[in-house]
User: Fold these one by one.
Assistant:
Number 1:
Amino acid sequence: MSSDVPSQLVTQCPTFTTDPSLTAFQVHPETYLSTLPNDIPCSPSDITPRFIAVGALTFDSHSRILLIQRASTDSMPHLWEIPGGGCDQDDPTVLHSVARELEEETGLRAVSVGPLVGGGYVFATRSGKVVCKYNFLVETDREAEGKEHWVKVRLDPNEHQNHVWATEEEVRAGCVGKVDVKFTTAEQRQVILDAFQMKRNVVRESAAGVEGGAQTA
């Protein structure tokens, strides 16, 4: 697989745009792994990951983030996380992995991926795999059209059993309505909180760009 993948991605896969800052992730997962640990930030840097995982941080137009609850029959039962998983050999790039995992786990389609939220962090699975995970803001087709009230999240019951759209305050409180939300890891909770700040930054920059364009015209 060539590492020269354009931002508007290949036609046999769902088409989505990417943030200009994500050039390093526009490569096949194996190519990306070959750049670690020196070229791409990943903490701790003294452990060399052999696998890449990705997470999708997606919001509705009310600035609520999508959280999904792991199935009672899966590992870490009943705990909450964002959509995501490991990169596959068939994924043309790391960013395709993000879009694929989001659609597989929730039925939502990405129209824009990025920017990156935080840096990568390394963890070991129960089977001993050393993984570096990266998390990205992802805009979905419904969000882009302002039709969040039409959003229907479709879960695979073998993997996830419930979902909520949560505000930042609800994430901090660990409670959405009457639903207790306990996260899979402390890193997962932190990256979700970081995503709220990143989302605000993106909205401000977008608004500033529109105002600037209007003044220029």
Number 2:
Amino acid sequence: MDRRITLVGISSLLVVGLAILLNQFYETPGTFRGTSYGEPFPKAPDFQLMNAQGDAVNLRSYQGKIVLLFFGYTYCPDVCPTTLSELKLVMDRVGDKAGQIQVIFVSVDPGRDTSKTMQKYVERFNSEFIGLSGSEDELRPIWRDYGVFREIVPGTSELNYIVNHTARVILIDQAGNLRLSYGFQTPPEDIANDILILLEG
């Protein structure tokens, strides 16, 4: 009786092991979880802004990397810190591939944000993130090109106001194409999944 039970147990383990191997062998490629821009993928509009050190930053200089582009502001009470925290988790999830990704945070509040304050802000989340700002004249065409909605809600004083704005993360692929976008509070594992597919493709 014990011998028969042992044989049944061994047979069951072999069947389970074979099923796992077959599943891995025939596993379908991963699918993207973000919202696709659709083929042919449009080129991401280039822009130039000065960074915290006073050097010009061009989007095109990051070709070869995946860029995660987000628009927000340092006085944001909820959406921006939440999104940047989630992007930090994305970087943690991709591990040693994080060097192939660049997060760029562009201001929608030039009245209060400078590139220095933006950079100081993003470094609270990850020292490799880049924060950029500029004058409203410099930023307005960038907002337009990326379809960023922006609305100032007056507060109790001239500098105490809220900026309602588009809260989507835009993924630009290694070739500089607009590839995917993610709504507010997209799980970090979904963004990491898509990044890994692109990096391994």
Number 3:
Amino acid sequence: MRGPELAELNAFVAVAERCSFANAAVQLGISRSRLSETIRELEGRLGVRLLNRTTRSVAPTVAGERLLAQIRPVLDDFDAVLSSINAFRDKPAGLLRLTVPPPAASFMLAPLLSRFLRQYPAINLEISVDGALTDIVAARFDAGMRAGDLVERDMIAVRIGEEIRGVVVAAPEYLAQHKWPTTPRDLAAHNCIRFRFPSGAIIPWQFEKNGRHVEVAVEGRLTVNDPQLAVKAALDGVGMLYTALGYAAPEIKAGRLVPVLEDWQTPAASVFLYYSGRRQVPAPLQAFIEFLRVNLRAH
């Protein structure tokens, strides 16, 4: 009997860590049926059941838990060895996996992706756009991007790009039918389009003026978790919208949305690229960090 292949072990780890064939198949980029076949072949080679399967759940057996505990460090070391070989290449190569919140993906990365891929033809990028506070180590990402106050202390963080600011806007039609707010407190009388984070929290509407900080608990009939949907609702006159300036800027320029409370600033959010310092930084990530420093002119 020949030993297990690397792909089979990677497949097992993906299922065991996620306790789901469906999620693991998405992660590995293969069909669920192919993944199930791979696990069956691995169990056949080893002669032991590694996963308990029911119609509702998947969990490692005792043997599976032991294999997972012992094989995960081996696979990490294997990845590290392959990454170290990159130092001898003329150009860094390999897969770079990132998790990025929607604003950073839209306004920082999207304009630069083609340039980065042309500059580094041997690097493959996988970007997961998600507002959730993802554990990059557990989810096997090389790095993530988020606001500085949300980066865990045990991570290495590199500030990138300019600060992201917010703006409050509404459609001209909405403003024609409602009294313009002159202070943040006036928003209590308006229908406000609220945004919910993946954590379940509603984004706070915060303002600053002359060193004074104000946070308003707004109310509204519409709550969304997609910025494009929120902007569309504002364009249709649903109500006031508090959003990242980048989402609203084209509509403001075209006159389809109007900024209000312009003498009040929204707190600026500095975006950081962060990664674990527990292992050697892969060459593709090193190249990506330097690329962002140059092209986003971090300071």
Number 4:
Amino acid sequence: MGLQGAIIAAGRGERLRRTAHDLPKPLVELAGEPLLVRQARAMSRAGAESVVAVINSETARRAEGIAMPPGLRLIVRDTASSMESLFAVGEQLAPGRFLLATVDSVMPQSELVRFTRDAPAASDGRFDGVLGVVRWRGDKRALFADVTKGGLITALSDRQTLLVTAGIYLLPTSIFDFAAKARQRRLAAMRSFLAMLLDEGIRLGAFEVHGAIDIDEASDLEAAAKELGGGR
């Protein structure tokens, strides 16, 4: 089985849609292309043989007529949280590793290719999965990572550190074995689930990427357009 891609895109993106003609975040355009379309194309160009994305019913309705990239499969699910969105795409994946991204995580194509190419080598024998990380630049809702000199992530939390997650991940499908436990604990976000995986002994490594921007507000779109201008 070749590399599988997965995109979490079921949120409403409340902060961004106020300045984006009330569009759901996956359909907001960056450089003339909806974020969902752009992310799926980027994953395919980085080596994903197939890509599955979870979107909500509003996005599905408003996406009618938009040409989707070949190989992209859409799951329509009004999930209660980003964690449940992750579990929804997990239902569609074959056993093995998969490349996961949030729809609003944007980075130069060269960096996504580098992550896809080099993260598996970084994880072999040492880590069960790898999270892309970036230097914190003041993001308001960042998930901070405590990382050892050897690249092992020891904690994921709101406690400020130098590095934050970049919204790109290489993970084993075995993480879904913990779905029932996460629901029993009433976890409500993917970040909480990732932190739980560490507590359960899953070894996650950090791989620093450059130029990654989390699209939450109109200013982030402008910054991403500028960043991509030199590294699409």
